[in-house]
Specification:
Elements lengths: L17 H10 L3 E3 L6 H5 L12 E4 L3 H13 L4 E4 L15 E4 L6 E4 L4 E5 L4 H9 L3 E2 L10 H7 L6 H4 L6 E7 L5 E4 L5 H6 L9 E8 L1 E2 L2 E9 L4 H13 L5 E8 L6 E7 L3 H13 L5 E2 L2 E4 H6 L10 E9 L4 H11 L8 E7 L1 H5 L13 E10 L5 H15 L17 H8 L3 H11 L14 H6 L4
Parallel strand pairs: 2-4, 3-4
Antiparallel strand pairs: 1-2, 5-6, 6-10, 7-11, 8-9, 8-10, 12-14, 12-15, 12-16, 13-14, 13-18, 17-19, 18-19
The protein binds flavin-adenine dinucleotide (FAD).
């Protein structure tokens, strides 16, 4: 444990005044950005352009000390506090109104140990930046599938990506973390040290503190057999039926996604990543590639980073997003019919409806071993609506909600916390599932005043007891 050095000498809760702000700015190594600053507009913008919040103060943290000072400043001045990792939460949880936004996106340090096969990575890295460094040594760990996303929010909520079948979720590969807690201390969390905190940050999101650094286990990953197949929408039934059968029996080395959307080649896409001997991958993938005369087949050996970067162009900055998601265990005829019907009337060509497969090692971890509880084989069913024109927002949101409602009868219990919008307490509970009660206790221990509330919030037991049951 490292005790906080109160460089500002701040007393507990006091109102914000100009002298305090000036003193705070002077004490930081990074920048303090305020609304009158030319950089303010860009600094408060997050991935989802639907989110339009105006923090009073933005701290571009340069170091762990800046994070500690920021936490202390927000706590002592009773300011709403939001934590910005990669800024890709579609719910926009990285940015707050009227409070302090602690932005870690300049903290991009990473040290790879190729002998131990570990990486120590700061909280501001994107997936692409992380992969760039680890791939120099032929190593990788499970992260998400779009490289512009932040490692921090992704890992803290679970982290589902191409390597989940072989190596588990991102949070399963976490071996240590450094966390600035609500009382301003910097704690190290591992299986042996502050092990309850270590349990909670592997699925419990940013509820327990600001993670300045993540230690990951890495695995040998170099060329993978990956890419996609596409088909016309008219073949939705036969393709998705076959896909479900194929994916359900696939080995840990292979992970898959299926998507419905408007692409130059067709509207149904099946994407794969086989991480293992290439000849074996060719053999495993043959039945899929020989099925149903695809319009295009671009599955080929490629660098892992090529795969990771390939969807980025589909998620440019500045677009509006409205996402809905739940878990789907079975992909039956009726569900396929509904998806195909809605996709044919999709209001934006940039939108996609997808299934992201979780299986293998990720599904065999004990549900109570980490805070991430949903340990079975399933698909993340995702409606990823995106469009550019603000005038189109209502139409896109309405279409998304309507498809989600139509699909509800086919959903299993639970939802992936990182895909949640502002959907109410029941959905937050569903995201934390059977681990919710234990997370409540942990919140009471590490953040009893709920300083870290701008997330999929686990209220401390005192707040939970006083809030009405929804
Ligand atoms: C284009 C796109 C593709 C995606 N693909 C995948 C995917 O393949 N697999 C997958 O699992 N998820 C995926 N996601 C979801 C992703 O996991 C979440 O959006 C995640 O929150 C992104 O993390 P971030 O750091 O960029 O987000 P931010 O918006 O910065 O933060 C998200 C949440 O985490 C908290 N937080 C961020 N950094 C820290 C920190 N250092 N310490 C404590 N709390 C922190 C924030 O306060 C906020 O509550 C995708 C999202 C997008 C937009």
């Amino acid at each position: 444990m490292v005790d906080r050095q109160d460089a500002l000498g701040l007393p507990s809760t006091k109102p914000l005044d100009e002298a305090d702000i000036q003193g705070f700015a002077a004490a930081l190594r990074g920048d303090l950005i305020r609304p009158e600053d030319d950089r303010y507009g860009a600094a408060r913008a997050v991935f989802n352009a639907m989110v339009d919040r105006r923090p009073a103060l933005i701290v571009r943290c340069a170091s762990v000390a800046d994070v500690m000072m920021g936490v202390e400043f927000a706590r002592s001045h009773d300011l709403p506090l939001s934590i910005h990792g990669g800024g890709h939460s579609v719910a926009g949880k990285a940015v707050c109104d009227g409070g302090l936004m602690l932005d870690l996106s300049s903290m991009k340090g990473i040290r790879v140990d190729p002998v131990r096969r570990t990486a120590e990575a700061q909280g501001g890295l994107t997936l692409g930046e992380f992969d760039h460094e680890t791939q120099a040594f032929g190593l990788a760990t499970t992260l998400g599938v779009v490289s512009v996303t932040g490692i921090a929010g992704l890992t803290l909520g679970g982290g589902l990506g191409w390597l989940n079948g072989l190596h588990g979720l991102a949070c399963d590969n976490l071996i240590s973390a450094e966390v600035v807690t609500a009382d301003g201390r910097l704690l190290r969390a591992t299986e042996e040290e502050n092990e309850d905190l270590f349990w909670g940050i592997r699925g419990g999101g940013g509820n327990f503190g600001v993670v300045t650094s993540f230690g990951y286990r890495l695995h040998p990953v170099s060329t993978v057999l990956a890419g996609g197949l596409s088909y016309p929408l008219a073949k939705a039934h036969e393709v998705l039926r076959f896909y479900h059968e194929f994916a359900s029996g696939c080995p840990d080395e292979l992970s898959t996604t299926a998507s419905l959307g408007v692409t130059p080649d067709g509207v149904i896409g099946v994407s794969v990543c086989y991480c293992g001997p290439l000849e074996e991958g060719e053999r495993v993938l043959r039945p899929l590639r020989e099925f149903g005369s695809p319009l295009a087949d671009n599955i080929e050996p490629m660098a892992y980073t090529t795969l990771q970067n390939s969807p980025d162009a589909g998620f440019p900055p500045g677009r509006r997003h409205y996402w809905k998601s739940s878990y789907l265990k079975e992909l039956g005829e009726e569900a396929i019919e509904i998806m195909a019907e809605y996709v044919s009337e999709m209001p934006s060509p940039a939108t996609g409806v997808g299934l992201q497969q979780m299986h293998g090692v990720a599904s065999r971890v004990d549900p109570t071993a980490t805070a991430f509880p949903h340990r079975d084989e399933h698909y993340d069913f995702l409606i990823l609506s995106q469009w550019a024109d603000p005038a189109e927002s209502e139409r896109n949101v309405e279409w998304t909600r309507s498809l989600f409602e139509a699909m509800e009868p086919f959903f299993g219990e639970g939802v992936y916390v990182n895909n949640l919008g502002d959907e109410g307490e029941d959905r937050v509970r569903a995201a934390y599932g059977a681990n919710y009660e234990r997370l409540l206790d942990l919140k009471g221990k590490y953040d009893p005043t709920n300083l870290f509330r701008l997330n999929q919030n686990i209220p401390p037991p005192t707040e939970a007891a006083s809030s009405p049951v929804s």
